[in-house]
């Protein structure tokens, strides 16, 4: 799961746990976009695929809304469906 700041170059990344849940802690306040990808090649980074030799891009999903995160305010019920 990747949390990208809209206004700065601050990014946070973590793995989903065994219960398919995630929790970011100690995030700077601001507006963020949330997305995730299935790391099928275990590289730790998103792979865009290749045309020659043909290789599919890794599957990804974006959360449809921008998250406005405030200091010490929890945000819950964020669901990413594949």
| Poorly predicted regions | none
Radius of gyration: 14 Å
Please work out how many helical segments DSSP would assign: 0
Which structural class should the secondary elements be placed in? Answer: mainly beta
User: What is the straight-line distance between the termini?
Assistant: 13 Å
Sheet with most strands: 5 strands, antiparallel
Overall geometry: globular
Strand content: 25-35%
The total of beta strands comes to 5
Compressed to H and E, one letter per element, the order equals: EEEEE
What do the pLDDT scores average to? 92
Approximate helicity band:
under 10%
Account of the protein in words:
This protein has 82 residues and is mostly beta strands. It has strands at residues 2-5, 11-13, 30-37, 60-62, 67-69. It contains no helices and five strands. A hairpin with a 5-residue loop joins strand 1 and strand 2 (11-13). The relative contact order is 0.25.
């Amino acid at each position: 799961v990747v949390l990208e700041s809209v206004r700065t170059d601050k990014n946070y990344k973590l793995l989903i746990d065994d219960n398919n849940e995630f929790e970011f802690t100690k995030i700077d306040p601001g507006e963020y976009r949330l997305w995730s990808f299935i790391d099928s090649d275990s590289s730790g980074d998103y792979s865009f695929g290749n045309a020659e030799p043909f290789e599919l891009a890794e599957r990804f999903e974006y959360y449809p809304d921008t998250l406005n995160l405030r200091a010490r305010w929890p945000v819950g019920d964020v669901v990413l469906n594949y």
